[in-house]
Amino acid sequence: MAKNKLRKVYVIGDAHGDYYSFSAVLISAGLMDPELNWCGGKATLVQIGDILDRGDSPLEIDRLLDVLALQAKKAGGRVVRLVGNHELEILRKNYFITSLPYFQIEAFRKKLIRGILSGAWQAAYAARNYLFTHAGVCDGLYPVLKEEIGLKKPSLSKIADHINDVFYDAVKNDSYNHEIFNVSRLRGGKDRYGGIFWEDLSSLISEHSYMPYKQVVGHTRTGRIVRSEDGKILAVDVGMEKVFAGKFEYLEFNAEGQPEAVGVEE
Q: pTM here?
């Protein structure tokens, strides 16, 4: 009997306003054609967050993802848009982090809130036995989530759903006090450990003894897709924006569900 093949999942890291690099990766992955239309069929695209800042065209990336999300849905596919720390700080009106002018960022903030409350953006996603967030769930945060869920070992889907529920309530009430919003000392904050938007990759990897699940994260620029020695962490912020001269790569979970780093010829 033939083995059932899974629908492919593609992950693209932090885009940071580089519309042309981001588009090139989408086309190379076979998710978008040169006319900027979805051609990925029933595949899932996960964009790991941080489309804002540094590059010149973050709003163009936002509009492109809006269009692709609608087209993918009609084709039986899906575009998963995760919120990164740059989007989070806009939600919190910490505009020091952004390079966009005030009138644009205020309009984007309102659109972002609508998108989160409608489900178009989210904080976490679970697929292929991996948890996808912008910066990861560290050992310090995992027991907090587990206790709130009320299970000794909650499933990945329950963790993702709970994170999204917490995030939804925070945005709805404009209150960001939960530990998922922590900023660690390593990242210039005051918290002992970072939350899912601000955790640093080095801390996530070194303090990943108790978190039993594999994760895909962005946030910490690596220049190439990195896999931790134990295989539990895949980091996809390759710094694709030109200002960092990063390598063009994306992560592909193939038809057998195995993750592979795929390079893009420039």
A: 0.93
